[in-house]
Write a structure and sequence with these properties.
about 400 residues, alpha/beta, six-stranded mixed β-sheet, four-stranded mixed β-sheet
């Protein structure tokens, strides 16, 4: 047990404004008195006695910043320490030495030490479809072009949630046309989900809920996640890729100087607007390589492999600046990336414009910037919605492309 940390003036020099970034670590706290407590490091189990004032300073340092910026933050959050910069600097230096604050450099070194896992290839790319036969046919034509160019050799499974017989028939014909080109393609309609439910009823883990999970108790109502549940059951114990029927495998991205790594929560997913597909396409750059390769290579792997020799993502200071220690630790401890996501570009696919007004100001600024541009975009804008750099987060609200289903089901 370390004794004892207090805030007292010293002759130590002010910390440098540049150099490594630091954040205080996680731990457990127990009170010893009104003025003292014991802090137990969550990972090492080591205990340190400190004043509650030092603990409050630690709490103000939970995001990665330079030590100089931490001094500023402690002064801002703790008025009682205003003007005690030397004392704050000394304590922060002591916290670093005792391992109670960790640097971004140390986190980077641990991430780069991650070892890739041997994995079987994804068993299928599933496509969720519901009463949009023309769009599904267009997607399957892009699948044929994709396989012709990259020879990924995936099985393509259309999980058809269509309520209208004509849509089911047309979807089945589109799948048959893809299969006739030599690509493994399968069409699974609601009747097939009924047979799957009968098989699943034998599994005690589902506890008789298979019919409900597969939307079979809803009649002709739209069943929402039933197609996703069917895809998860179909690929249980393996990895899969997935798309919706209104997608195409024709990726483009916004030009960017930095394609490195970003660590922030919630995820920052920029949106840009253009008046028409031609203008939007001209504003984006084509992706020459296999657009599904990164999803296949990363899904199911430790997050740290992104920073190893195979991917070689650069982690500069800006990637960590402002990120919490908890977020960074979650990335470091992530032994399997469960989902991967990309982005979309094209028509907004919305029948109303109400969603414009729900966007954060930082997202919608490009639409409101000019009155004439706004009037043009209002009628049905084309959008690019996707990531400019690799981001890792504990929670994502973006529809996944890659899904590690080895343990989910």
């Amino acid at each position: 047990m370390e004794w004892e940390m207090t805030l007292t003036p010293s002759s130590s020099e002010a910390p440098p404004a540049d150099g490594p970034l630091y954040a205080s670590v996680d731990g457990l706290v127990a009170a010893l008195s009104d003025e003292e407590c014991v802090f137990q490091h969550a990972e090492t189990g080591e205990s340190h006695v400190m004043t509650v004032e030092v603990l409050a300073a630690m709490d103000a340092c939970r995001r990665f910043r330079s030590l100089s910026d931490h001094v500023d933050e402690v002064e801002r959050k703790l008025p009682a320490l205003k003007g005690k910069r030397q004392a704050i600097s000394q304590v922060l230096g002591f916290l670093v030495k005792r391992g109670l604050m960790t640097s971004d450099e140390a986190m980077r070194d641990q991430l780069r030490a991650s070892t890739p896992k041997a994995q079987a290839p994804p068993v299928a790319l599933t496509i969720r479809s519901c009463d949009r036969p023309a769009q599904l046919a267009r997607l399957l034509r892009s699948v044929e072009a994709y396989e012709s160019r990259f020879s990924r050799g995936l099985a393509y499974v259309v999980v058809d949630d269509s309520r209208h017989a004509d849509s089911v028939r047309r979807n089945r014909e589109s799948v048959a046309a893809l299969r006739s080109s030599g690509i493994a393609a399968h069409h699974l309609d609601r009747d097939w989900r009924g047979r799957l439910a009968s098989l699943c009823e034998r599994e005690e883990a589902l506890d008789g809920r298979a019919a409900s999970l597969l939307g079979l108790e809803r009649g002709d109502e739209f069943t929402g996640g039933a197609a996703s549940n069917a895809a998860l059951l179909l690929t249980a114990g393996s990895r899969m890729l997935q798309l919706d029927d209104d997608f195409l495998i024709e990726p483009r991205r916004r030009p960017a100087k930095d394609r490195g790594f970003g660590l922030r929560e919630p995820l920052h997913v920029p949106i840009s607007f253009e008046p028409g597909l031609e203008a939007l396409e001209a504003s984006l750059e084509a992706i020459d390589g296999d657009p599904l390769a990164a999803h296949v290579d990363v899904c199911g792997q430790p997050a740290g492999i992104l920073f190893g020799p195979e991917f070689g993502l650069q982690i500069g200071p800006d990637a960590w600046r402002g990120a919490s220690f908890g977020t960074a630790r979650a990335v470091l401890n992530c032994d399997a990336v469960k989902t991967t996501a990309g982005g979309v570009w094209g028509d907004s696919r919305m029948d109303t414009t109400l969603w414009y007004y729900l966007l954060p100001a930082s997202y919608s600024r490009g639409m409101w910037s000019d009155p004439e541009r706004y009037r043009t975009l209002l009628h049905r804008p084309t959008i690019a919605h996707g990531f400019d750099r690799v981001q890792v987060a504990r929670v994502s609200n973006f529809t996944p492309v890659g899904v590690d289903n080895t343990e989910l089901v």
